[in-house]
């Protein structure tokens, strides 16, 4: 985890991926806590669009946004891609 401290994009990816955990996977729960704390501490130093991506992730994880987006928009023409939801 020490290698993630300086790489915000990797940390953001790790944060989002950890939300795919199964209940009781403590290592992933610890990863979420670590990443959330680190992202919160560096967000004020980031520039758009990365700052926006971090802010969105801290508000609602990517996998939850994707699930919500896919449930709301069942038409293939209105679904947003993962790239569109991660603006960095």
Write the layout of secondary structure elements.
Layout: H1 8-18, H2 26-42, H3 50-59, H4 62-72, H5 82-85
Helix pairs in contact: 1-2, 1-3
InterPro entries: Terpene_synth_N, Terpene_synth_N_sf, Terpene_synthase-like, Terpenoid_cyclase/PrenylTrfase
Pfam family, one: Terpene_synth
GO biological process, one term: terpenoid biosynthetic process
Sum this structure up briefly:
With about 90 residues, the chain is mainly α.
Count of helical stretches: 5
Largest sheet: none
SS elements, strand count: 0
In sequence order, what are the helices and strands, one letter per element? Answer: HHHHH
Could you tell me the strand content as a percent range? under 5%
* Rg calc: 14 Å
Give the overall shape, derived from the CA principal axes. Answer: flat
GO molecular function, one term: terpene synthase activity
Protein name: Terpene synthase N-terminal domain-containing protein
Pfam family, one: Terpene_synth
Keywords: Lyase, Magnesium
């Amino acid at each position: 985890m020490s290698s993630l401290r300086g790489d915000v994009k990797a940390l953001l990816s790790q944060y989002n991926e950890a939300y795919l955990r199964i209940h009781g996977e403590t290592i992933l729960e610890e990863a979420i806590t670590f990443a959330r704390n680190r992202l919160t501490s560096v967000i004020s130093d980031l520039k758009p669009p990365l700052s926006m991506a971090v802010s969105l992730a801290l508000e609602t994880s990517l996998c939850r946004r994707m699930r919500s987006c896919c449930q709301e928009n069942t038409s293939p023409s209105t679904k947003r891609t993962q790239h569109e939801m991660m603006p960095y």
